[in-house]
Amino acid sequence: MTSITKSQNQIRLTADPHKPLSPAIYPTSVFLFENTAELIDFVEAKSPDRFEYARYGNPTRRAMEYVLAELEGAEDAVLCASGMAACTMPVLALLQNGDHLIFTSDSYLKTRTFIEKTLPAFGIATTIVEPDIQAVEAAIRPETKLVFTEMPTNPLYRVIDLEGLTSLCRKRGLISMIDSTLASPVNLNPIRHGADLVVHSMTKYFAGQNDLIAGGVAGRKDLVSQVRDRIGELGAILPAQECYRLYMSTKTMQLRVERQNATTLALAEYLEGHARIRKVYHPMLASNVDAEQARRYLRGGGCLFTIDIDGGFDQMRAFCDATKVFRIGPSFGSPESLLDPPVIMSHWNVAPEQRAAMGITDSMVRISVGLEDVNELKADLDQALQKAF
Ligand code: PLP
Question: Which residues does this entry mark as bearing N6-(pyridoxal phosphate)lysine (predicted)?
């Protein structure tokens, strides 16, 4: 990964005469023009580096867009209001009535809902397949335009053969788009493996402190430019203040993610041998069905793992209720460790048969590991497992 300091040094803040180390916040909706000649130059050039109205762009946002592009090795990037906007805006910008999209399973449920339920209402057909190349290839139709997958997936941490996928897409003239939220640029750079677009919920590792919601899209300049236009049209923008906060927290992202990689793997390995645990899911464990691909593509496994407790719904609840350091809450990538029982938190309204088909059991808990001491976390999990039985 490009170092965050290097990427932040390279951003085009040089126009600021004060040469600040961190970007200035521009709390304005309007940017002025000296005269009509300057305005004509602006409308002709269509550059994202000159600003007119803050729904289309803002220097603080642009500074963070340069950082995201640099970290992902992308030609360009655009920020938006949330990770959901980062997932939906490219689809709404690049596809139209009559097109077909392929998405993979074990995905963030709201993204799946958008794809399964909302897109068909716009005349966009969709197919959801397992995250593997053969399944994707079999689903391609003449009208297929885009293949969208997550890497790794969640909560089972499947890891697709990324280069196989991107070369298949290139051969068949399809756009490849990777939601790399769970990896972060610290652990994976999909563009460097041939992806056209990478999207992030920057709410997670980038923000890093559970204090804001943000999203970003990086990739090919021509595609990002269309996404930027659609964000400007639909209005899902990220305010300058939030861009500044993201910029500041990104300075420590590498340190945080590397620490979380190490602590999470240590906890996953520890619980894999625990008498009260039926199964542990973590990208880098040898027991992961995609362990080979995980080792090939990921520099680390991230801050999430999932346990299936060797009991039922009641033991799972007792375990969650007994933890003292881990708190019950969604999301991940923060300093605080969190627990998310998917059967309640995200899949409560999904029919039991469909939940089972998705691999979600009543005894599963997704664990998001924070920045606490590994021994403190281990002891907390241990005592909660003891109390659960
Ligand atoms: N993509 C993934 C993989 C996620 O986990 C999430 C949120 O948890 C999102 C997208 C949506 O992000 P946000 O909550 O920032 O809208």
Answer: 204
